[in-house]
TrEMBL record:
<comment type="similarity">
    <text>Belongs to the nucleoside phosphorylase PpnP family.</text>
</comment>
<dbReference type="InterPro" id="IPR011051">
    <property type="entry name" value="RmlC_Cupin_sf"/>
</dbReference>
<dbReference type="InterPro" id="IPR014710">
    <property type="entry name" value="RmlC-like_jellyroll"/>
</dbReference>
<dbReference type="InterPro" id="IPR009664">
    <property type="entry name" value="Ppnp"/>
</dbReference>
<keyword id="KW-0328">Glycosyltransferase</keyword>
<dbReference type="Pfam" id="PF06865">
    <property type="entry name" value="Ppnp"/>
</dbReference>
<protein>
    <recommendedName>
        <fullName>Pyrimidine/purine nucleoside phosphorylase</fullName>
        <ecNumber>2.4.2.1</ecNumber>
        <ecNumber>2.4.2.2</ecNumber>
    </recommendedName>
</protein>
<comment type="function">
    <text>Catalyzes the phosphorolysis of diverse nucleosides, yielding D-ribose 1-phosphate and the respective free bases. Can use uridine, adenosine, guanosine, cytidine, thymidine, inosine and xanthosine as substrates. Also catalyzes the reverse reactions.</text>
</comment>
<keyword id="KW-0808">Transferase</keyword>
């Protein structure tokens, strides 16, 4: 989906890694939480509480899930991160993303 409708938007930005990764939180009517953001070139590691769907809208990056090999996305793509886990990112070009938090 290219746009989110009927959402509550949290105005306060989520800022990580000295501003190199930022996002805004949107809450859908059914309670689903999504963050929409930008990642600047660099290397990052994130932890998860819930399962996450990382939808890359544009950019170039490598990602590594626990116990797996590095994978590359150039342009757009999607990857999933299990709950209570970590993942690593190598961002090679400004990357636009939408992260969906999945309650199982």
């Amino acid at each position: 989906m290219s746009q989110l409708e009927n959402v509550n938007l949290i105005k306060q930005a989520n800022v990580y890694f000295d501003g190199k990764v930022t996002s805004r939180t949107a809450i859908l009517q059914d309670g689903t939480k999504k963050t929409l953001g930008i990642m600047l070139p660099g290397e990052y590691e994130f932890s998860t509480a819930l399962k996450e769907e990382m939808e890359i809208l544009s950019g170039k990056l490598e990602y590594k899930l626990s116990g797996q090999e590095w994978e590359t996305i150039e342009g757009s793509g999607v990857f999933y991160v299990p709950a209570n886990d970590k993942f690593q990112l190598k961002i090679h070009a400004v990357t636009d993303y939408c992260c969906s938090y999945i309650k199982e």
